[in-house]
Amino acid sequence: MAIDIDGTTERLIAAQDSRSPVEKLLDEADNPTKADAFRVAQEVVRRRVAAGDAVAGFKLGNIAKAMQTMFGVDEPDYGYLLASQFRPENLTIDEKEFIEPFVEVEPAFVLKNNVGGPHVTAVDIIAATDFVVPALEIIDSRVLHWNISIYDTLADGGSCGAVIVGGSPRKLSEVDLADTPGEVRFDDEVKATGNTSAAYGNPIGALAWLCRRVAEYDVGLQAGQLILPGSILAAERLVPGHRVTGSFAGWGEVSFDYGNVK
User: Fold this and answer.
1) Less CB within 10 Å around the terminal CB: N or C of the chain?
2) Strands annotated E in 155-251
3) Looking at residues 163-176, what average pLDDT do you find?
4) Cα–Cα distance measured from residue 73 to residue 52, given in angstroms and rounded to the nearest whole number
5) CA–CA separation, 131 and 166 (whole Å)
6) For the segment 191-209, what is each residue's pLDDT rounded down to a tens digit?
């Protein structure tokens, strides 16, 4: 059975806007493909941009084994980042914006050159990178209780909810992304720890993998965009009433308060 791209897009946008999850997004009995799922995500983005939003980046998700195990998805996902998903650091993010959110820390890449194609290597990513910054991603599935398949999360834009970028930019030569410890804290309590090596050995290699993967859709990463290479640790469920901080040893951190905005 052919996938109903328009119908699935409309249900997904309605779930995003109402913060009311659907029980099922793409039925595997209909034999969806990853290309079908990505077409849904692209249609969501097309409609958001037509309504006044803008594409601001791209993400890779579930690259770390800890994340795949947590959400029962055995391969990475990916999707566009919209300008409306970015939030300032050190301010309060309203719990009412999300359905069932988790938070994860990542080293975000900002590009100075376009990069893409089926033969991208780590060298190409290094050459295209302007700087990296600490970032927190709030992930939030529009499928009830995160009962997702790879097709669901691809259609749902990699399950992105929001992105918070820190103010500690570094050149790649100033950090060691092959071996930098990181953690997520709620107030002063460490909730999760990891290492940048969990992202495909090195987040640089993770982005090369991403470029090769999305090249089949004729998609590349663009200069000026912020690119997330995937969490370095198992995502932590967000709990209102806490200050959430993601940090990288010897580099910097990024924080926000999570709670009720009146």
Assistant:
1) C
2) 160-165, 181-186, 189-195, 226-228, 236-237, 242-248
3) 98
4) 32
5) 12
6) 999 999 999 999 999 999 9
Distance CA 36, CA 149 (A): 13
The first and second tokens of residue 64, run together, are: 């770390």
pLDDT of residue 168: 97
CA 199, chain centre distance (Å): 13
Q: Is the separation of the CB atoms in 142 and 21 below 8 Å?
A: yes
What pLDDT is attached to residue 74? 67
Query: What global pTM score does this model have?
Result: 0.96
Instruction: For residue 18, give the amino acid letter.
Output: S
- Residue 61 CA to residue 157 CA, distance in Å, equals 10
SS3 198: helix
d(CA 86, CA 213): 25
Q: What is the DSSP letter of 11?
A: H
| Listed residue (207, 16, 189) closest to 101, CA to CA | 16
* Three-class DSSP category at 10: helix
Task: Report the C-alpha gap between 20 and 109 in whole angstroms.
Answer: 32
Nearest of 47, 256, 38 to residue 152 by alpha carbon: 38
φ, ψ (nearest 5 deg) of residue 179: -165, 70
Give me the pLDDT at residue 204, please: 98
> Which SS3 state, helix, strand or coil, does residue 94 take?
strand
What would the two tokens of residue 84 be? Answer: 């409306």
Kindly report, residue by residue over 76-133, the tens digit of the pLDDT. Answer: 999 999 999 999 999 999 999 999 999 999 999 999 999 999 999 999 999 999 999 9
